[in-house]
Write a structure and sequence with these properties.
- This protein has 261 residues and is mostly helical.
- 66% of the residues lie in helices and 0% in strands.
Length: 261
């Protein structure tokens, strides 16, 4: 952590370190200036992602999500913003458009309140694009400019699918139905489409400015997860989709050095 961080930024960094260690490592691989924007953003994402899971009462979860929507509305309006260890530093790095994009992310997160989550594959892809994809786009905006058309959607969908595969054993244990079709062949096909979308993103990513690249650092290791699932879809249910933290860290180091993922 940087000694120049104030209490709010330090709190955001600690939230991400505890709750989203993959993104924490990705931020720590970025320049210090980038960390000032990315830590509040990822802390926000973590708090929103948690909201549907910290209570068994759907109404309370909806109230939590609405609280964050109200905070974003204050940021978008450009007036006074509520005092909060995440909202306060987030307000310093978001413009109105970015706040609206994050509001749409929260709307998408209402899916997490439902026991049966996706009626078909199209609904799953839409969820991934509107959560992980929008987050990637806002990260790039914070770092200087939006991502090229289609890159946020493809990269976000691929990354989100890989993370979704990792979460499936826990989701099923909680009584959720996380995939529209859980048959092995369908899971392998889904992973294959994730790899196709990752390939689309890879073709566009070299055109990014250097300052934007840390927005994509969380994608390090995404291809390895999707490839493992495409080859052996049973790894998802067994909790074996991730190849290993050492490999993830090597992928992140390579990405930070070369910009390739």
């Amino acid at each position: 952590m940087n000694s120049d961080f104030d209490d709010d930024l330090t709190a955001c960094a600690r939230l991400v370190e505890r709750g989203d260690p993959d993104r924490f490592r990705a931020v720590m691989a970025a320049p210090v200036a980038a960390r000032r924007g990315l830590f509040p953003l990822y802390a926000f994402n973590l708090e929103v992602a948690r909201a549907p899971w910290v209570t068994q009462e759907p109404m309370i979860a909806q109230m939590r999500l609405q609280w964050w929507r109200d905070a974003l509305a204050e940021i978008a309006a450009g007036g006074p913003v509520r005092r909060h260890e995440v909202v306060t530093p987030l307000a310093l790095v978001l413009d109105g458009e970015a706040a609206h994009l994050l509001d749409a992310l929260i709307v998408a997160r209402h899916r997490d309140l439902e026991k049966t989550m996706f009626e078909d594959e199209t609904a799953l892809w839409s969820y991934l694009e509107n959560t992980s994809g929008r987050l990637l786009d806002v990260a790039a905006r914070i770092l200087g400019r939006p991502l090229p058309a289609g890159l946020a959607a493809d990269a976000g969908a691929a990354f989100g699918l890989a993370r979704w595969f990792l979460a499936i054993p826990e989701l099923e244990e909680a009584g959720r139905a996380p995939l529209p079709d859980g048959r092995s062949a369908a899971v392998a096909d889904l992973a294959g489409r994730g790899l196709e979308r990752l390939a689309n993103a890879r073709r566009v990513a070299p055109a990014l400015a250097a300052a934007q690249r840390p927005a994509l650092y969380p994608l390090a290791g995404t291809g390895a997860i999707l490839s493992r699932v495409a080859r052996r879809p049973g790894r998802v249910a067994a909790g074996e989709a991730r190849p290993g933290q050492l490999r993830d860290r090597v992928a992140l180091m390579r990405m930070a050095l070369t910009g390739r993922f």
